[in-house]
Structure formats: structure tokens, C-alpha cells
Amino acid sequence: MVPFTSLGVCTSDRGDDKINKRNLKNIYGVILTFLIIFTNLTLSECENEQISVKWEKDIDSTVKLIEISEDGNYIALGSNNQIYLFTNNGKLLWSFTEPSGGIELNSIALTSDCSYLVAGFGRKSAPQSFAECKVSIPNTSRAYLFDKSGKIVWQYDSKNSIDSVTISPKGNFVLIGTGLEEGKAIILDKERKVISEYSLSSVNSFPQIISPDGDEVVIFNYSLFDPCPFYLNIGKPPSQNLYIIKTDKTEIFKNSYGILLDENIIANSISRNKSFSSLAVGGLKIILNNYNYPVNEQGFVSFLWRTKTRNNAQPFDLDKSWSFNPTSVVESVCLSNEGDILVAGTSGYWKRSEKSIPQKWINDGAVYVFKTNESGKLYWSYKTINPVNSVSISSDNNYILAGSNGAYLFDRYGDLIWKSEENDYAIAKFLNTADSFAYTTKTKIICCKINYSTTKTKELPVEVEKLEEQNTAMNLTNMDTTEKEIVINETKKTQETKNTPGFELPAIIGGSLLAAYILNKRRG
Which residues form a coiled coil (predicted)? Predict the structure, then answer.
């Protein structure tokens, strides 16, 4: 218990000393602040009450992919060589196991209403040593097109590994990207007719996306020391190309290294807004020494605003486009429906030596949230430490979801309002609604409903918003500039401490007591 004397109040054993009204105001203000902060801490320990589980299902094998139909009614899961299709109320419609056993599922995609599902099976994993380089190349890779009932509409075989597949929202076009020995973009219709087979200058075709009407495809295509990963590539840097291709075989645009991106980059993830007027791309940039040997890497996330007239000259508006470079590799990006919010998730980086293969992988996962219409202003970030496998935005932009060592749910202002109990590899995505999402553990899918209600109604700086929410007795409006700065700075320090695992109660109380003291002095 802190003695009252430390708060500037005189006491006496005789009990007949009077406490003046001004000091009483100070005491009440301090006590009120302490109670509010303590209540918030108590609530934060009961955050599971903010989320209710709608249903959950066990899966026979390790889940590594999850896709949600645009209408939010269907959930597709992918494991090593299996596919599962659920309705959003937990009913398993069908499952499929690839019969050959020598290839693994690399990619799945759904039409808007899940009338069709496409899946691509190819190489098992990237080789991790020279000895594995040739062993990991499959003899035959396959893409399957399924209808909603699970019936195979067609099967497409390829001698090259199928790295990625995409289907247009209406199902009229399927895009297959192959790699390892020969990079190709193969566009088929739902009858399996090959519309175009476009040879790419590099050998790995990933990631890729199709426009809403299906008339254009966007592909990031990179080349490594085939088929080995770039860190085995001595003296030969990777090359990256961005393609925009019409489904009628017309190449709209090709640019080495992409837009706003330096050389030696590899894209890992791509996302578009609903109207296809903007794109988000994330990945890594490889830093080479004078001998073209990779000695370091950092992440990149780029926001690309499309011009109204797209041609071979320039399909992006460089005045509205921007890039950001976190220290860690970007694994996942997501654009909001309107394109005004961009979320990126990072994983970590290799600790390298100039004379040897990477020595150690450092986990350095984080979630970054940007306002795209403010030149890429970083709105907030949150360290998960463990790699972030997926990021997702709710349809109303009020919530951010991340899959890492468990699922993380944030409100739009950066407050962590819930984390799953399972401290396990997770992928998490919204069901195209404002209050429902699904996440996976290694052997389970769980669908949840958000019961938390945001009460924030105005856009204030994050630190001011949180301060007003934590202490309704504080009125920043009536404070002068100096007092505002003190309160905001102290609150900001408190939040930074709170965002660190193992933060201590005294740090939070200390900042709040100082803020309360200033405000009570002002009222005095």
C-alpha cells in the first residue's frame, strides 16, 4: 500500500487533522485513475469473453492453407496432399486426397460463390542443400478443377512444378503458374481449353492474381540458381519480373524488378482491392556483396496504384504508389476492399556470414498496418516475435486478424483484443463479414464470432484515443499544449511498455498517475 504522505497529503495518528478539499480532489483523481487502469488490466486478462467459438473440426493432417470464398459461405483447407471444403457453419461438404503421393498441395483458390475450386500440386518443398536440389523435382505435377460437390471437372498435368493456381471470381479462367525448370503462365477456361501458354523469362511463377472480370492476370516471376534457393547461389543474383497479361495472350506490361522495387527482390504475397484499382505486394530484398553473394536480406511491402489507362508505358501511378522496408521478410499482405488500409505480416531474417551459408534464422514476426492514402503512413505495428503466416482485414475495416503462434485479433487502432489459447502454427482469415473469422492449428479449424464492440467514433492520434478511452475523467480539450504533450508522451511510453511481453503494472500506473496529477492540478 502506498502511504498518503507520498501523494502530498498530511496524516496524523491523532485522527483530528483535516485534509483540505484541494488534496481530496488530487486523491480522488489518482484513485479513479488507478481503478480505471486496474479495471482495464483485469479486462485484458478476460479477453476470451470477447470471442465465442461457433464451431470447430479436427483435421486428419497438418493444415497449411486456408481460403475463404468471396461471399464468405465456404472455407477450403489444404494439407500436404489433401483438400477439405466446409460451409461457414462447419459442415464438411467433401475432401480429396491426391492419389500419386509424390507431390504436395502448393495452392488453392475459389470462385466468389465456390461454384469451382482449383488446386495445384507440385514440388514437396524448397531444397535446403545441394544434395536435395534434383531430388525434390517431381516427375509430374497436377492441377485439378473441382465443382462445389467435389467432382473433378478436369485434371491438368505438367512436367514442371505447379507453384501457384488462381481462378477468376466467376470461374471463367484458371491461371496456373509453373516453375523450377521452366516458368510458364498457363491460362485455361473451365472446359480445360488452353487459352494461352505464356513463357516467362524466369523460372518460378509466384505470386499471381486475376482481375475481377477475369480479363487480366498479374504475375511476379523470379529466377534463382535452379532449383536451389538463392542462398546457395554464389555469383548469380536472382532476377525479378512483373507481368501484366491479358487473357487473350496480349502482354500489357513487363518490367524487370517491378515498380518501386529495387533489383534482387522476391515477392511472396500479392493482394488487390475489390475494384482492382490498387495492388499490394510483399516479399524480401536480397543484399549482395561485391561478389554477388547474398549477405543480408530485408523485407519490402509496396502499394501500387493503377492508372486509368493501362498500356506498355506505365500501368501504375507513381505519385500514389509507395514502398516500405521492414527489417524482416514480408510473408503476407492484405488490402482492404476499398484499398485504403494495407496490412503486412513479417517472419524474420537469416543471420548471415559473407563466407558461408546462412548460420541461423532469427524469428522477428510483426504486424504492420498502413494508411495507403497518406503516402504509406505507418498507422501502428505489433511484435509477435514468431513468424506471421497470414493477415486479414474485416469487411468494415474495424478488425485486423493475424495468424502466427496462434491467432491474434486487433481492433483498427492497434489494441490486441484477443489471442487464441493454442500456441501453435496458425493461419487466420475473415469470412468476408464484420464479425466472423476462421483460424487453423496444425490439426484443427476453428470458426469464431466477435462479440467485442468498438466504441471509438473519431479519428484521433492513437495515443490520444487510447488515453481518452482509459480515463473518462481526463479532458484533453481544456488542457494547454504543454500539458497535452506531457500526458500524451507519458501515455505513449505506457503503451510501448504494454506492447512488450512481461510488462509490469508499476510502469502503467506510473504514467497514469502523472497524467492524473497534471489534470487534477489543472482543475484545482
Answer: none
